[in-house]
Write a structure and sequence with these properties.
Number of strands: 4
GO molecular function: oxidoreductase activity
Strand order of the largest sheet: 1-2-4-3
Family: Belongs to the nitroreductase family.
Helix content: 40-55%
Largest sheet: 4 strands, antiparallel
CATH class of the domain at 9-90 and 171-224: Alpha Beta
Bound molecules: flavin mononucleotide
Protein name: Nitroreductase
Structural class: alpha+beta
Number of helices: 10
Domain Nitroreductase: 13-222
Transmembrane segments: 132-154
Shape: globular
């Protein structure tokens, strides 16, 4: 991987701003791809990696996507776009990928020879993950949710089992990957603009995504124009959001 991090993590975090106007200067496609690679190293719930990344470099496609994003500047002036997609629907595929990985990590030995820790890990993907993810038009999810609420009266239990909860699980991890991407870009002096202002139906159509795939964020990429940052960074006073217990 050829990403040279010119900035430290804290420098990159401070450098990153949402840039709404990008220079008409091209950026290196491979460097952006390297940053997408770094995005995939983000923490992800149960290591399920329920995400996909669409790297849009064709000017015609950028134009089409910008039009479906209300022609907002962050998309319209972008040199490239990265679209982070949450793919909750791929859970079975990702579960099997994790199981195969674990099997190889454990030396492809028979399960009877697994250590306690290995058994637990395998059980997690073979039994717990399907229990959490399996659903049938939201019905099974609701039954699980009610059952978990009842069990939860007596003991701590994982409660996020509805279809809507699982969407949040997938989007949370996709958001972390998006942030990894933007910080990696900032580290090499590339700029980004995260956007959720778009017509998701039209974007999904352009990307040929199934209805179960959900757009997490569209990220405009390029180099900041002098007028590209609309104002000073504003944050709520830290004391208001920091709680020490
Ligand atoms: C999930 C998400 C969606 C956003 N959607 C848009 C958007 O549609 N258009 C836009 O111009 N900025 C968008 N932003 C950028 C925010 O307005 C911006 O992050 C915020 O004002 C803080 O500024 P900063 O990123 O420069 O620190 C979005 C940011 C996030 C995290």
């Amino acid at each position: 991987m050829a990403v040279t991090n010119e900035k430290s993590v804290s420098e990159a975090i401070k450098y990153r701003r949402s840039v709404r106007v990008f220079k008409k200067e091209p950026i290196d496609e491979q460097k952006v791809k390297d940053c997408i690679h770094l995005a995939t190293l983000a923490a992800t719930s149960s290591n399920m990696q329920l995400w996909e990344f669409y790297h849009i470099v064709s000017p015609d496609s950028i134009k089409e996507i910008a039009a479906a994003s209300f022609d907002q500047n962050g998309a319209k002036t972008a040199q490239q776009l990265v679209i982070v997609v949450a793919r909750k629907d791929l859970w079975r595929k990702r579960m099997h990928a994790n199981i195969s990985f674990l099997k190889s990590q454990f030396g492809n030995k028979p399960e009877a020879e697994y250590s306690k820790r290995e058994k637990f890990a395998m059980n997690y993907y073979k039994k717990i993950i399907p229990t959490i993810y399996i659903d049938f038009f939201g019905i099974f999810g609701m039954i699980k949710f009610i059952a978990f609420q009842i069990i939860g009266l007596f003991q701590p239990i994982y409660r996020q089992a509805r279809q809507s909860d699982m969407r949040i699980v997938a989007h949370k991890s996709a958001g972390l990957a998006a942030q990894n991407f933007m910080i990696s870009m900032a580290a090499i002096n590339y700029d980004t603009c995260p956007m959720e202002g778009f017509d998701s139906v039209r974007i999904k159509k352009i990307l040929h995504l199934p209805s179960s795939g959900e757009i997490n964020m569209i990220i405009g990429c390029g180099l900041r124009d002098e007028q590209g940052i609309y104002g000073e960074r504003f944050r709520i006073p830290f004391e208001e959001v920091y709680h020490k217990i």
